Amino acid sequence: MYIEKINSPQDVKALNTEEMKQLAQEMRTVLIKKLSIHGGHFGPNLGMAEAIIALHYVFNSPVDKFVFDVSHQSYCHKILTGRKDAFIFEDKYDDVSGYANPDESEHDFFNIGHTSTSVSLASGLAKARDLNGGKENVIAVIGDGSLSGGEALEGLDYAGEFDGNFIIVVNDNDMSIAENHGGLYKNLKLLRDTDGKAECNLFKAMGLDYVFVKDGNDIE
Ligand SMILES: Cc1ncc(C[n+]2csc(CCOP(=O)(O)OP(=O)(O)O)c2C)c(N)n1
Predict the structure, then answer these.
(1) Are 80 and 6 a contacting pair, CB within 8 Å?
(2) What is the pLDDT of residues 127-179, one digit of tens each?
(3) Is there an atom of ligand 1 within 6 Å of 176 CB?
């Protein structure tokens, strides 16, 4: 088991690709058990296991700052940032909340539960960093369902003009609590169907650089 040896993101960085794949599987196994007994968000977390390993492999949390939208997909982030016992041991299940919580860890920056907040909050962190002469990365993670909320659109609008280092990861899994509705989803579908190559691209139109990743569960 790799999960039992992960006490901080530094331990993730020491793993090779095969070990990271195994770790993702172990995280899903403990999540299915905990959430079956305790309740919580299944889908958002099972789907993000590899992506969160990748974020912690590439970036240097908590110097680099992740802001998770809703934060209902942050359980794997919690597992990798010193809180694994709360997912492995039944008597510790209540040691963590189901959402990001700065009182729990220096790797969490906001108490969140509402959708559509991450891009705006993270743009504030990025602006503050620049005012303070900092160099760290700021990364907002947001799902397609949350992307059509007003505050997310304001955040994107701000980010499109922001002249600094700011990364937004859109987890477009075409899944939300209810069906997605609105013009934005036509463009997300077009981008999925064309592997991000369609000329009509709402992110580029906002002034953002854009990289399409087809398979977000592919560790490599
Ligand atoms: C303001 C607000 N409205 C509704 C909800 C209920 N809610 C929780 S998650 C979610 C949608 C999540 O979908 P998505 O952003 O695609 O993320 P995924 O679950 O795919 O990671 C909604 C509507 C909420 N948390 N906050």
Answers:
(1) yes
(2) 999 999 999 999 999 999 999 999 999 999 999 999 999 999 999 999 998 99
(3) yes
CA of 80 to the centre of ligand 1 (A): 23
Residue 144 structure tokens: 């397609």
Question: In the predicted model, what is the mean pLDDT of residues 51-68?
Answer: 98
- For residue 160, the model assigns a pLDDT of 96
Ligand 1, atom nearest to 149 Cα? 1
Q: Which domains does the chain have, with CATH numbers?
A: 3-205 (3.40.50.970)
Ligand 1 atom with the smallest distance to the CA of 144 is 16
Nearest atom, ligand 1, residue 172 CA:
16
Is the CB of residue 152 below 6 angstroms from any atom belonging to ligand 1? Answer: no
